[in-house]
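User: Fold this; tokens only.

Assistant: Input:
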Amino acid sequence: FTSIRQISKENYCQQIKTPILIISAGSDNIVSNKSQQLVCRRMGNCRLITISGALHEILIERDTVRKQIW
């Protein structure tokens, strides 16, 4: 919860200069896709890829989903 509060601060994300790739599970019911989109917009050097139909544990998903990541 501490990290959620930290990243929710409006100016926090703008300070991150490292290039970031977020791979989002489109059907995630644990992590908010809207929050991931907001954080990515706040970072200047972020790319967000959403995999439709994928669930939270995206790296142990079915082969068709994992192939989109690799």
